[in-house]
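Hi X.,

You mentioned you wanted examples for the new student's onboarding notes, showing what a folding record looks like when two proteins sit in one file. Here is a clean example. The first protein comes first, with its sequence line followed by its structure tokens.
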Amino acid sequence: MPGQDDLVISFEISHEQQSFRLLELPPALLDLITSANPPSLSLKSGVVSDQNALSPASSHAVLCTNDQTFHVRQVQSSNSVYLVQPRKSFRQNEPQLAETAVEAVARCASTLELIPASTVGVSLRQILPMYNSPLGEPIAEVETVEGSGVNGVLSKQEALENVPLSPRQFNEAWAEICAFELDGQAWIPSAKSLRGVWSSIIAAATSKSVNLGGKFLIPDIADVVEEDGFPRALFDAVIERNRMDGEVLMTDWVILAKDKCVSWIGGLLLELQSSPDGVAESEFLAEWKNQLPELWRNHALLRSLKCIYSHPSKGRITFGISSEDRSGPAAVSNNNGKRPGKWHEKFKSTRR
């Protein structure tokens, strides 16, 4: 029993309970939002694919900072967690005397935890239509996000708002697949279109004696590519994807990154030439070299390919992964193999 001098704090439970969700923040994110210049955070919907799912209960929401994406997952707790606030309590027989008390205004049976995500199930390829070629009308091979954009049309900004990626990750993915915007509509070019643009670039460089292996003027090539019927925005996307790292397209001059470009062209050609039986490796390598500037042709080697390929039979190669390899590598977490700690488990050892 407490003595006369002991401090007694009354605990009360409010009849009108409020709705709260507890969100456990990783230390790095907590430091970020409590810094002098906290970033904007956004919650987006996004389905995690089975291949990348972290558990059967993986969430359908992500939280994004300027450069990171986190899966939001609900974790049930067997403990009763109350949110309390201080209040003054008055004795029934002595209303003039106020006591210090805490009042529980909400009870939370679960918490939300954030798990860093390097990949997401919903990608740009799943929400943007495909631009097939300038030889025919662009075709939409995928459905756009229902209710988004104007009359089903998505701009680049609207695509950013509908893809569960941080702005930095979105811009990286946008550049990697050479996505472009034309008359307010965002498009993803097909491999056929990309090869067409590159063939036009090679032809323009040959006719105008432009060395693609060094610094060159963009207008010298762009004018010819547009004459061939390709949008300037698509040409710019190809240059942006393959330019030298650190180069900024603020002037008319640019330098292409040799290794990046050689690998990209090889992947495009293999994707277009492949069939279930594959294509002759020698035939593929010859075509690959023909699509490169002369000084780059010795770099057309299979080990430089960044895409997935396999050998269905001796001397033949095909784009994609073989049936026996479809299981893929085991998923690796960003936490050295350990699951993120749950805050309520940190106190488990103190229970009696």
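Then the second protein repeats the pattern, sequence line and then tokens:
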Amino acid sequence: MHLFLLSLLLQYVAPALAAPATFDASSMSINQLNDSLSSLFSDDVIASNFPTIFNLTTTPQNDYINYRIPNTPTLLRVSLYPTKPISKAAMQVSILRTQQAIREYMSGHYGIADTTLSHDDNPWKSDPAWKGCFIGVTGFPIESYKLTYQMVANVLDGLWWFLFREGRYMEAIFEVQEDGIGTVGVGKVSKARP
């Protein structure tokens, strides 16, 4: 708990300087990602016990924005939905509680930070008790995902800085890229739990 509070304090004290965004020409656009996820999360896949957290039937209001998460090898490619606002308070609680949950999980399981998410933890989701803002992050591509617990913690830090601290209180979808690996996951921030 003390580490969590220290982390929050450092977020307010240390400046959040984003590294220059990089572009991976081999990566797909958000619209292509949206189409791919829609087909991957079909009824057949759901029936085969794959946990689905995304309902990407709408097109984002803009193309993606690259955001390098400070002091990490993780890049978020985010597409925002400005016509779908989320309460500031709900977003704050959801991000902070989800950050706390993954940090407590990692501190209770020595050495797990750099291992891929277990089947039970993929996708990593915000607590259903917190209403008004849902966060979900899952490994992608499905057949060989490499999303680790530390990468999920990085993503949550990035969502804190990119969405909450910058006043972007709205729904978003995102792709997670890791330096040296490429795309390792996808995620969604929405007002309601899918």
